[in-house]
Amino acid sequence: MSRLQRRRFSEPAEVRRFPHGRVDVVELDDIVVGRMTYEPGWRWSQDVKPVAGTERCQYHHVGVTLQGRLRVEMPDGLEMEIGPGEVFEIPPGHDAWVVGDAPWVSVDFEAMRSYGRSIEDRGDRFLTSMLFTDIVGSTALAATLGASKWKELLARHNERAERVIDRHHGRLVETTGDGLLALFDGAERAVRSAIAVRGAMNALELEIRQGVHTGEIELVGGGVRGIAVHLAARIMALAGAGEILVSSTVHDLVDASGLAFEDRGSHELKGFSGARQVFAVVEEKAALEEPAALEKAAAQG
């Protein structure tokens, strides 16, 4: 429930520092707002890339510039300069750098939950829950739409998915052309994010398949590595259009979450010895139990 409140950047809940820059973060319950201050000479690909572990910034930024100028470059070469008093939106997949001799100071309302934060040291192994997604029939759809419209649709797909993932405290680490990989600090958050991503893609009339697994991974050279990553991808590949499949590990971790699953049996997965059991996310238990409860009440009445 929303409430009347205020915060000061002079008293931040968290300060994230990196070369030539810092982010002062304030929190309004579930809303996270950041003040970004980048000094002259700051560039994302030099100063934040080692922290993020991705080739380009995968966050969606929406905010307003208070002072200074920032130049943004997209993968297709499109560039834009953002100056004082200008409200901006920057899609995922960009590089950016400060222009001129003045610091660039802005307030960001969209990407501040985990932007600029390192959740691990590069090369360190850590436990995480992974969400893989893939657009069903992407090759045929791309051919039907044509290169320009397909590229535009992919951009909308990435932006909407990133917003959902951020709301569930996740981190988008890779886009795979027609899908993505996101990391979460909890299995339930990963599954609920998958459900929300499916809804967001339905609004774009896109069918996707998704897979969720929890295991140990590491970040090496800006990429996510580990046997658990391959297992998550294999589980996703088993899913049909609109399906969310999870590993037995995830199924056990979310047992008391209110989520409901269907057993999809054991499968031999390429590169793995022994069969692996998978489950499909159906509805939340409350949603499944409600019709039965109403029918029972009607019979008793």
CATH superfamily of the largest domain: Nucleotide cyclase, GGDEF domain
- Indicate the CATH topology of the largest domain: Alpha-Beta Plaits
Give the total of beta strands.
Answer: 17
Tell me the overall shape: globular
How many strands, which pairing sense, and closed or not: the largest β-sheet? Answer: 8 strands, mixed
What is the total domain count?
A: 2
Summarize the structure.
By secondary structure, the protein is of the alpha+beta class. It is 29% helix and 38% strand. It has helices spanning 44-47, 49-52, 138-145, 147-167, 187-203, 227-238, 248-253, 285-300; strands at 14-18, 21-28, 31-38, 61-67, 69-73, 79-82, 87-90, 95-99, 104-108, 125-135, 171-175, 179-184, 208-220, 223-225, 244-247, 259-268, 275-284.
Explain this structure:
With 301 residues, the chain is an alpha+beta fold. The protein has 2 domains: 14-108, Sandwich (Jelly Rolls); 125-289, Alpha-Beta Plaits (2-Layer Sandwich), CATH 3.30.70.1230. It is 29% helix and 38% strand. It is built from 8 helices and 17 strands. The strands form 3 sheets. Strands 10, 11, 12, 13, 14, 15, 16 and 17 form an 8-stranded mixed β-sheet that branches. It is globular, with a radius of gyration of 21 Å. The protein starts with 13 loop residues before the first strand and ends with a helix. Mean pLDDT is 88; it is low at 285-299.
